[in-house]
Amino acid sequence: MGRGRQKAKHTKVARELKYFSPATDYSALERELTASHHDHDDEVSKWAEYADDDSYVPDDGTHRS
Question: In this structure, is residue 2 part of a structural domain?
Fold first, then answer.
């Protein structure tokens, strides 16, 4: 296949991708965002006991005050 045909195919694909606009499912988006928020809260509560730990010493030897 020559360069002209190859370039034409790439241009066609690029144009299709540029102007393609699928229908947006807002209810699915809302479910996804709501679910990720709850997962984040669970993660935070799981590690909450370490948040106020004053005995933490970093690897470099400095102490957090």
Answer: no
SS3 8: helix
Range of the domain at 31: 25-51
With 0-12 / 13-18 / 19 or more C-beta atoms within 10 angstroms meaning exposed / middle / buried, residue 44 is exposed
- Please indicate, yes or no, if residue 37 is contained in any of the structural domains: yes
In a domain, 64, yes or no: no
Q: Quick one: what percent of the chain has pLDDT higher than 70?
A: 68
d(CA 33, CA 40): 11
pLDDT, tens only, 28-41: 989 888 876 556 66
Average pLDDT, the chain: 78
Question: How many folded domains does the chain comprise?
Answer: 1
